[in-house]
Amino acid sequence: MRYELYYWPSIQGRGEFVRLALEEAGADYDDVARRRGAEALMPFLEDKSLARAPFAPPFLKAGKLVIGQTASILLWLAPRHGLVPKAEAARIWAHQLQLTIADWLVEVHDTHHPIGGAFYYEDQKPESARRAAHFTGMRLPKFLGYFERLLAQEKGGWLLGRSLSYADLSLFQVIAGLRYAFPRAMARLEPRHPRVAALHDRAGSRERIAAYLASRRRIPFNQHGIFRHYSELDA
Amino acid sequence: MRYELYYWPSIQGRGEFVRLALEEAGADYDDVARRRGAEALMPFLEDKSLARAPFAPPFLKAGKLVIGQTASILLWLAPRHGLVPKAEAARIWAHQLQLTIADWLVEVHDTHHPIGGAFYYEDQKPESARRAAHFTGMRLPKFLGYFERLLAQEKGGWLLGRSLSYADLSLFQVIAGLRYAFPRAMARLEPRHPRVAALHDRAGSRERIAAYLASRRRIPFNQHGIFRHYSELDA
């Protein structure tokens, strides 16, 4: 089946977690809005007669099924492409990790948008400075420490043990983004979290992921996405 | 099976979405920390040797399985208790709605904690005023409008049509919380969203839910939870 992925065409954002899974799977997919522009998303978001429409991008069209919410897309996609073990306990664990990563991502976003997405960063700079200091000082070490501890308990270097799952790809993406957004904080924290750093490097060097990262399909990090580099926020 | 629910004992919070599902199901469960105090949660959060430990409450213990993340708990629990249809497309849709409600909930929380959970509301009042104005002015109508539109498309008054699902119980809880936290904004907005208001009232009057709400098991809304009433934030 040829999947259709719908997401904003100019940022990695939440869509990137789906892209990475599709790429690792070698799945056939059309990143629709990158080809046709952001207006390709609009029928799904603005057509009031569309039944069971998603609230926001990303969403994945698989035949007649339209699935929204990043974690929900991955929950559906992963078992079809060997990106999660078959056992139910493992699947629910991978999903739980994805949801924790989603929570982490909200906190990253809020470092530069604590007052809300409707205002520019420039209109919430003092608030961002406070929130980012709290993030790099308290929350970032807590999340990194959690995943470091999980990796220390598993044999094999992946979050679910010996085989890569979509949760590993998602953790890769968060670490890549944090290195872009908070290089000073990450340079300070990574030596204390060697397993997380190693997972990033190992996931990023897998054949299909490395090819994807080197391709034009990978949108570079930029100042419009979730991960943004503002030097003044990187304490 | 007797479930064990672990969540902070003094607030409804995220645990309440699980409690409502357990109550509607008539499931046998122990709300552990309400009986034994918050220290009952600590082994799961602080024992560094515990394998695959949750990041944060709530979590549900079902035999040997420990499941964290509210949406993930409900995903696992609902099909075992008839709180979601059997068809895969319906299950993934209910889950997607739950994740959208989870996003909404984060935005509610951030109206009084835009700078982060480590600071008291009193230490982030100006930031909260800005964020809350954006929430009640823009985001709240967007979320309410989305769910109103979904309900208008379904026959039967529930989010998945003719039968109640856990997504309905979660929407009930959000509306109840919003009425407590933002009575003025809700009084203004509810007449434009009659189906959402009707769903709240109908879910709340179901036999088991009504009995639960009237019992001491239901923790009252208070100024420590996600839904808080600060008159100055209710524009």
Structure description:
The structure is a homodimer of 235-residue chains. Chain A is of the alpha+beta class. Chain A has two domains: 3-81, Glutaredoxin (3-Layer(aba) Sandwich); 88-220, Glutathione S-transferase Yfyf (Class Pi), Chain A, domain 2 (Up-down Bundle), CATH 1.20.1050. Helices cover 53% and strands 6% of the residues of chain A. The first copy, chain A, is built from ten helices and four strands; from the N terminus they run βαβααββααααααα. Chain A has a four-stranded mixed sheet with strand order 2-1-3-4. In chain A, helix 1 (15-25) links the parallel strand 1 and strand 2. The mean pLDDT of chain A is 97. Chain A binds chain B through residues 48, 51-55, 65, 67-69, 71-72, 75-76, 89, 92-93, 95-96, 99-100, 103, 106, 110, 114-116, 118-119, 124, 127, 130-131, 134-135, 138-139, 146, 149-150, 153, and chain B through 48, 51-55, 65, 67-69, 71-72, 75-76, 89, 92-93, 95-96, 99-100, 103, 106, 110, 114-116, 118-119, 124, 127, 130-131, 134-135, 138-139, 146, 149-150, 153.
Number of helices of chain A: 10
Number of extended strands of chain A: 4
Which strand order spans the largest sheet of chain A, edge to edge or round the barrel?
Answer: 2-1-3-4
Q: Which regions of chain A are unreliable across 5 or more consecutive residues at pLDDT < 50?
A: none
Name of the top-level CATH class of the largest domain in chain A: Mainly Alpha
Task: Describe the structure concisely.
The structure is a homodimer of 235-residue chains. Chain A is an alpha+beta fold and 235 residues long.
